[in-house]
Each structure stands twice: as structure tokens, then as C-alpha cells.
């Protein structure tokens, strides 16, 4: 959370704005599932009481109104959704509770602002018990994206596999790239612009060629060749029940800043059932400082404050919107 707040301040500096005042509340505990943050649990009740307490603090001690724009959900992506149909249903219920607390604040009511829960796709390719295949994308990652695309209370910043990690492939080193990406999305949420991460909307096949249509931030598709390790086919994989074909080539097509696609050419016309495209679903690097399942396709965004400030070991020159982890059926 600290890196996100510092990055929000850095965003204000980059845009030459008058400095805003940020108040950060933290209720997280490492290694705990999201079910422990729902109403009626100690952590959930802490969130419910801390938000109005923060409002009273700002009004009583500083004479300022408090508007809650976002709750940052970092971690808690374990596949524990006891009492709910799926992790996505749990995430949606959590967002409804937390955004409701913020929407009830006096300044939120006056401004007509309902907060958002801003979160990311889980960083590791490691599978959950419900998906034992070692090349299967975590269901929590898929649910997070699907929920963000259907629930207006939830915003997904995209994946965070671009961050280097310590050798366990989980905990990030530096966190400046993720913090700055969170801050950028928060800035758009605060302005009312919203944010949609780079993702596939459809996969259609004609012969041995599959065309992937995309949605996400405006800009030209790029293949990362200066930060990410070299990834076969940019981290995209084709599969069906009989492994009847494999990818021969992948081409990035940018017709305009808002019309982008990926053309996947297979080495044969596939005949297997349940054909699908997988993004970042495989352990495609042996680098111990990388999380494993990654994709190197992205759209460049605003320049990085941290990179310009000299933190080049931990950041790219600009914020990069990497393509989300997905499993997309081919039609």
C-alpha cells in the first residue's frame, strides 16, 4: 500500500498538479483468504469501522472532507470461497460491502461518488487444488478478470507477472512497477474515466489461422524485448483435447490505437475438441526471479516517474499494460 500511495503522489507530480492529501488505511494480513475480510469477521468489521473513523478524523482534526475513491485489494487470492459459488462471487460480494461503506460517507454522498475495489490478477502460474494440471491458469486469476468485466464495483489493473520476484516466485522485488500501475488506474478511476485491462474478447478460427480480438487501453501492441525474458510466441499457447496442432507463429496487428488483434498461425488445421487459447498459462521461464507463467505482449502507457527518477533496475521507461492471463475458447 505504501508504494501505491507514493506512486499516486508521484503521478500528481508528473501531471504538475497541486498536491492532494491522501489517507491510507490498512487492514491486510499476509496469507489470509478474502473470506476473512467479509462483514461479521474481525478483519471485515475492522474495515467497516475504520472508514467512518477516518472521516471523523479528517473532519475533526483537519477540517477536511474525506472522499473514498478506492479500496486496493492486494493478495488474498487463495481459492477459498466458502459460502459462495466461486471466487468471483466472493470478490463481487466483498466489493459490494466495501464500496457501500465508502458510498455512505458524507462527502461521497455529496459528490455522488461510489468507490471501486481495484485489484490485480494473481502473479503465479501455480495451480489451485481445483485445477491440478500444471499448465492450467489459476481460477482466481480468471475469476478476477471476469468479475472486473461484469461488476462495475471491481476494476482489474491486469496481471503483475512483469515484476521480478525473489527466488520463491511470489514476493515482488521493488514493487515500483505494480505500485505505479495501481496509481495510474486509481487516477483514472478518480477522474471518472475508468480502466479496462488488455485482454482477449474473442478467438475465431479459419483454417489454421486464429484471430484474437482485443480490448483494453488505447495504444499500439508491442512485444517486450528489453524487460521480460524471451518467451515463446509471446506467452500464448494453443491446446485442444488431442493436441492436434501447435503454434507456428504469432503476429501483432494494430489497425489503430483502439483496433488491435493478434493473429495466431498453427502448424496444422486443428481437429481436437475444446480448442482454446491460453495466455500466460505455462511455466515458460527458468529464471528464478520470474513468476513462471508470463506473456510479453503489452501496450505502452505514460512515462514512469520512478524510471525517470533513476530506479531503472526496478522499472521500465513507461508504464506497460501487459495482456491478462486468460483461457479463451476458439470458435
How would you describe what is shown here?
The protein is an alpha+beta fold and about 325 residues long. Helices cover about 25% and strands about 20% of the residues. It is built from seven helices and 13 strands. It has a four-stranded antiparallel beta sheet with strand order 4-5-9-8, with no helix packed on it. α1 packs across α6 and α3 packs across α5. The longest helix is centred in the N-terminal third of the chain and has 21 residues. The chain is globular, with a radius of gyration of 20 Å. The N and C termini lie far apart (about 40 Å). About 5% of the residues have low confidence.
How would you state the average pLDDT, rounded? Answer: 89
Described by strand count, sense and barrel closure, the largest sheet is: 4 strands, antiparallel
Spatial strand order of the main sheet? 4-5-9-8
Gyration radius (Cα, Å) is: 20 Å
Helix segment count? 7
Which term fits the overall shape? globular
> Which stretches are low in confidence, meaning pLDDT under 50 for 5 or more residues running?
127-135
Which structural class do you get from the secondary structure elements?
Answer: alpha+beta
What's the total number of strands? 13
| Share in β-strands | 15-25%
Order of helices and strands: HHEHHEHEHEEEEEEEEHEE
Percent helix among the residues? Answer: 25-40%
Write out key terms for the chains shown:
single chain, 331 residues, 4-stranded antiparallel beta sheet, 7 helices, 13 strands, 27% helix
How do the helices and strands line up, and which of them pair or pack?
Blueprint (H helix, E strand, L loop, with lengths): L1 H13 L27 H21 L7 E3 L14 H17 L2 H6 L4 E6 L17 H12 L3 E6 L16 H16 L7 E8 L2 E7 L6 E2 L12 E4 L7 E10 L2 E8 L9 E4 L17 E7 L1 H4 L9 E5 L3 E4 L2
Amino acid at each position: 500500500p505504501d508504494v501505491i500511495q507514493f506512486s499516486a503522489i508521484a503521478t500528481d507530480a508528473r501531471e504538475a498538479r497541486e498536491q492532494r492529501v491522501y489517507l491510507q488505511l490498512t487492514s491486510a494480513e499476509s496469507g489470509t483468504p478474502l473470506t476473512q475480510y467479509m462483514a461479521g469477521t474481525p478483519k471485515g468489521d475492522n474495515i467497516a469501522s475504520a472508514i467512518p473513523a477516518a472521516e471523523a478524523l479528517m473532519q475533526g482534526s483537519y477540517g477536511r472532507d474525506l472522499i473514498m475513491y478506492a479500496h486496493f485489494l492486494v493478495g488474498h487470492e487463495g481459492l477459498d470461497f466458502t459460502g459462495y459459488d466461486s471466487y468471483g462471487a466472493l470478490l463481487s460480494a466483498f466489493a459490494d460491502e466495501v464500496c457501500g461503506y465508502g458510498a455512505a460517507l458524507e462527502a461521497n454522498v455529496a459528490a455522488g461518488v461510489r468507490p471501486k475495489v481495484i485489484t490485480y490478477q494473481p502473479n503465479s502460474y501455480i495451480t489451485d487444488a481445483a485445477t491440478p494440471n500444471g499448465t492450467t491458469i489459476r481460477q482466481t486469476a480468471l475469476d478476477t478478470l471476469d468479475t472486473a468485466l461484469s461488476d462495475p464495483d471491481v476494476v482489474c489493473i491486469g496481471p503483475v507477472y512483469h515484476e521480478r520476484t525473489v527466488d520463491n516466485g511470489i514476493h515482488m522485488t521493488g514493487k515500483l512497477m505494480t505500485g505505479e500501475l495501481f496509481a495510474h488506474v486509481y487516477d483514472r478511476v478518480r477522474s471518472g474515466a475508468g480502466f479496462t485491462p488488455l485482454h482477449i474478447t474473442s478467438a475465431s478460427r479459419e483454417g489454421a489461422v486464429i484471430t484474437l480480438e482485443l480490448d483494453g487501453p488505447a495504444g499500439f501492441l508491442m512485444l517486450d524485448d528489453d524487460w521480460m525474458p524471451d518467451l515463446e510466441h509471446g506467452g500464448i499457447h494453443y491446446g485442444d483435447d488431442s493436441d492436434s496442432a501447435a503454434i507456428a507463429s504469432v503476429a501483432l496487428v494494430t489497425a489503430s490505437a483502439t483496433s488491435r488483434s493478434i493473429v495466431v498461425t498453427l502448424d496444422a488445421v486443428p481437429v481436437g475438441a475444446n480448442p482454446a487459447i491460453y495466455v500466460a498459462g505455462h511455466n515458460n521461464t527458468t529464471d528464478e526471479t520470474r513468476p513462471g507463467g508470463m506473456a510479453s505482449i503489452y501496450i505502452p502507457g505514460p512515462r514512469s516517474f520512478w524510471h525517470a527518477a533513476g530506479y531503472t533496475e526496478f522499472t521500465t521507461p513507461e508504464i506497460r499494460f501487459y495482456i491478462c492471463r486468460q483461457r479463451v475458447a476458439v470458435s
